[in-house]
Amino acid sequence: MRILIATMNPGKLREYERLLADVPGLELETMASLAEPVDVVEDCDTFRGNALKKATEIAKVAGMPCLADDSGLEVDALGGRPGVYSARYSGEGATDAQNNTKLLDELSDTADEQRTARFRCAIVIVDGAGHELAMADGACEGRIGHEPTGAHGFGYDPLFVPEGYTQTMAELGPDTKNEISHRAQAAAKLVPLLRELQNP
User: Fold this and answer.
1) Domain residue ranges in the chain
2) 72 forms bridges with which residues in the sheet?
3) CB-based contact 133:125 (threshold 8 Å)
């Protein structure tokens, strides 16, 4: 089974190849294989909505099954923000550092026990006509630290301390992150669904 991953990022392709390695005969490729780029505006108010929109629009252009995800950070003290706006929390084109600074500013008067948060991810797979085949979501619970630490990862990783750990996601490094991340949780739920699709 061939599935297009809704990304141009070869690193994300490698991550999904590892996360879905238990699905025999699965071939993944990036949007780099498309004749023309597909730009999807992610304007839905849920991670699942954005992932479904992205997968559907790209699958219809590509004429083949497509996997898309959307993810972000939800902070309880901020009513779930930044949520679907995680990548552009401090404005369009914002850098990770700018988003982290805004988040820390908003939490400056928030006590440790109230800094609970989670990374959330939704993954959707649609067929070549854009019909949903499978959907899974995952979450990684934790809390927000007081300053960025660690050299690994991206986004809010330097601020996010996963539950059961004392270091940020950026300090833990990619191997641990790939075991406990929200994307890994969601992808693990997809494995049996993909096996069923291959052997109906």
Assistant:
1) 2-198
2) 120
3) yes
Strand partners, 30: 5
Catalytic residue flag (residue 70): yes
Per the structure block, which two tokens stand in for 5? 């991953």
Is the bond into 200 cis (omega within 30 degrees of 0)? no
153 torsion bin: left (phi>0), alpha (psi -120 to 50), beta (else):
left
Q: Work out the angle at residue 49's Cα, subtended by the Cα atoms of residues 80 and 131, and round it to the nearest 5 degrees.
A: 155
Residue 9 has a pLDDT of 77
Tokens at 126, concatenated: 């649609």
Q: What are phi and psi of 118, to 5 degrees?
A: -150, 145
**Which of 45, 69, 70, 157 is labelled catalytic?**
70
pLDDT in tens, 144-190: 999 999 998 789 999 999 999 999 999 998 889 888 999 999 999 99
Query: By C-alpha distance, which of 66, 31, 72, 76 is closest to 48?
Result: 72
Nearest Cα neighbor of 196 from 29, 43, 17, 23 is: 23
Q: Provide the CATH topology of domain 2-198.
A: Maf protein (3.90.950)
Burial class (CB in 10 A: 0-12, 13-18, 19+), 82: buried
